[in-house]
Amino acid sequence: MQTKIIGEWELEYDKNKTEKANNKCMPAIENCDCQGCKNYYCAFPQFLNEIKIFFDNFSIDMGKPIEIYKNRKILYAGFYYIVGKINKGKNIWEEKFSSKDSNDKMYSQNNVYKINNDFEIGFTYKISISDNNFPESIFQMEISFWVPYVIDDKNYLKHFSIEKGHK
Predict the structure, then answer these.
(1) How far apart are the first and last CA of the chain?
(2) N or C terminus of the chain with fewer C-beta within 10 Å?
(3) Any idea what DSSP says for residue 111?
(4) Would the CA dihedral through 125, 114, 43, 162 be positive or negative?
(5) Cα–Cα distance between 59 and 71 in angstroms, integer?
(6) Contact 17/136 with Cβ under 8 angstroms?
(7) What DSSP string runs through 68-84?
């Protein structure tokens, strides 16, 4: 196990077990043929080296997210699993309402770590989707990032508003 400090988080993880589990995973695009997913798989090889190095430190294959999604501003989000545990740090997901009966959570902008202006991460103990490739203790790395469109499909792109500076 290795320990890494990222922002306020102290993470303990097993790089080799994470890599072995990722090698068994099928890319999320295997289950989705939407243009947004296709674009991610065409665009991620063009990410800046600092992003690639960050993922390599955990032995995460960027081409195999557990989940990937985008919103109407062409901002992608998703998550990856890492074998290990969070020793210290706030959960990226916070209670949305003060009511104890509510299970609603929201992504907290206060609990993110920015790798650069276009890419931020956070960590959570809550596992969103069960994956048999990760049978051991795992935690979830949430990602939120801008991705340029690299697929030439004007019919698809006209449904999205592109925020200034992110094309």
Answers:
(1) 40
(2) C
(3) G
(4) positive
(5) 27
(6) yes
(7) EEE-TTSEEEEEEEEEE
Positive or negative torsion for Cα 134, 49, 29, 36: positive
How many C-alpha atoms does 93 have within 13 Å on its Cβ side?
14
In the structure encoding, which two tokens stand for residue 58, read together?
């955990």
Rounded CA separation 143/68 (Å): 9
pLDDT, tens digit, 9 for 90 and up, residues 15-49: 999 999 888 887 777 777 777 778 888 888 878 78
Q: How many Cα atoms within 13 Å fall on the side-chain side of residue 47?
A: 23
Q: Tokens 């062409």 correspond to what residue?
A: 74
Of residues 67, 76, 57, 66, the one with CA closest to residue 22:
66
Our measurement of the distance from residue 87's CA atom to the centroid of its chain's CA atoms, rounded to an integer in Å, reads 20
Report the pLDDT value the prediction gives residue 12, as an integer from 0 to 100.
94
Predicted confidence band of residue 95 (pLDDT cuts 50, 70, 90): low
CB 157 within 8 A of CB 149: yes
Instruction: Report the C-alpha gap between 51 and 143 in whole angstroms.
Output: 11
The pTM (predicted TM-score) of the whole model is 0.65
